[in-house]
Amino acid sequence: MSATDWIALLPLILVAGTSVLVMVVIAIHRSHLLTLSLTLIGLAVSFASLWAAAAEAPQQVTSLLVIDRYAIFYMGLIIVACFAVALLSYGYFEKCEGQHEELYVLLLLATLGSEVLVASTHFASFFLGLEILSVSLYALTAYLHTRKLPLEAGIKYLVLAASSAAFLLFGMALIYAELGTMSFSQIAQKLATETNLPLAVLLPGTALLITGIGFKLGVVPFHLWTPDVYEGAPAPVTAFVATVSKGSMFALLIRYFYGFGWHRIPELYLVFAIIAVASMLTGNLLALLQSNVKRILAYSSIAHLGYLLVAFLAGGVFAIEAVTFYLVAYFITTLGAFGVVTILSDGTREADRLEDYRGLFWRRPVLATVFTLMILSLAGIPLTAGFLGKFYIIAVGASSSIWALIVILVVTSVIGLFYYLRIIVAVFSDLPLAAERIQPATVPAFRLGGFTLVVLAVLLVWFGTFPSHLLNLIRTAANGLR
Hints:
77% of the residues lie in helices and 1% in strands. It has helices spanning 3-8, 10-28, 32-56, 69-94, 102-119, 123-141, 148-179, 184-193, 199-217, 225-232, 235-259, 266-287, 293-314, 317-344, 360-363, 365-379, 385-399, 403-428, 446-465, 468-479; strands spanning 59-61, 65-67. It has a two-stranded antiparallel sheet.
């Protein structure tokens, strides 16, 4: 490897090095605050190294990874999201039993796996990044192993993720057996130049590949793990799963399928369209039946991934821009929503019941305002980033004339307003007994979480009102996709 390759890989190397450093420090001296500080410093340095990597972009590092502006943008998004999750985790785990330093090693490793995913150009690096991410998430989900729900959620995620990995590997094997390569670019080249390729092997292989990717995204019909894992995992971990895990997989989905022009294969288009429709309908309809806030947000995330697939189906550079902007908005909103759940949780149980939020505005007005902004963004209300994200998806869909999907998106979004309004009504209800359910946090560590939420709320409104700077970055990243 050349010096240019090392510079291009700096964001990954620094995250990996930080995880090793944190692990060594834990072995020498246990300190929750010290571990958090080292994690945040490592993430900040890794984020700063993106500028050095961008100077060398695009850089193909062996046949496994490409560090282009598309990968760099998503790496930055992943690192910032992990930074926010680490800040939220400190106050949450300070109130929980046991030792918590190893949590940050797992967070860093999951971040590393996600970075590998967004830069992958080969099935080997794809699977390696996915497994680094998944194995870390198993442990993160069940981190509070003395409690029933986290342990149950961790086991469910382990079993189902292992099964989906088997589908993924079998799909890769079938594609390799037919094409003789595992490189994304060579797969695209063969599909473009060899017109007589038998689809009897390629289509089943791609279907199995979609099964593995669909599980990680949590779209229908691979969504069954989502509500249980969201409810059972610690709130900061749920925020990580809902954002970094799904965002990195969607970034890889775009890189792989757009690379070989999948839209020229009608069978694949139909499969993704069915998944999109099923996700939008199932996510919104089942969310109406929930009274647990984390489960409502889980089913909401299924619906939002369906919205993203609508833009994905539109195809083209503008579709990539719409998907990326929506993912940024989704990251901010989801981190903020689960951040509120994190701060309100008291260390013995999650603040995930709808009753826990009744009268929140009269007890914690700032927190209630932030939560309301996040819910409004999820609902796609104007002046939030979520509204612009949904607007861009509809605009891209209209430009490609996929009117049936757009109509379903609009109708299901209206359905979603009902369960979002249930939460907002609870927040602004004036019930005397509500004040006894959740007392204001007294741990100073929660100031970090509060500061994080305020920053997220500002970004949410800023990108919803003045999106030009973000759109310019996204446009550069989308144009850099090879």
